[in-house]
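Deliverable D5.2: sample structural annotation.
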Amino acid sequence: MRKAAKLINDDTLDRLKRTRLENCAFEMRDYEAKRWDEELHDGYTGGELEAAFSMVVDPEDWRSSIDAHVGSNYSDVVTSAIAFFTGAEVRTEPYQHEHWGPTVRVRCVGYRNGPCGP
């Protein structure tokens, strides 16, 4: 008696491909999450850099130029974050803000107008 060969239909094959892609995507997310917790730039982790960058970046257009005031205690991490995400030079200058007291003004041409932009 001959055993019937088991055929894989197109739906099963598509489901297997999707599962494989989803597993690869999951592994990449897991790898990136672990990497994001490691030191990436100037002694700061990816999470620290992302949080600092979000303090000064335009949420509607992260590639635009940056001109912001930050507290003196945040200037190092913010400067590192801007340099990391834009690839451009960051200019800083001490500033006496009328309401907040001593701050640091950080300016950058942004990703779009910097060396990494189009």
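Annotation notes: The chain has a mean pLDDT of 81. DSSP finds four helices and five strands in the chain.
The annotation will be released with the project's public dataset once the embargo ends.
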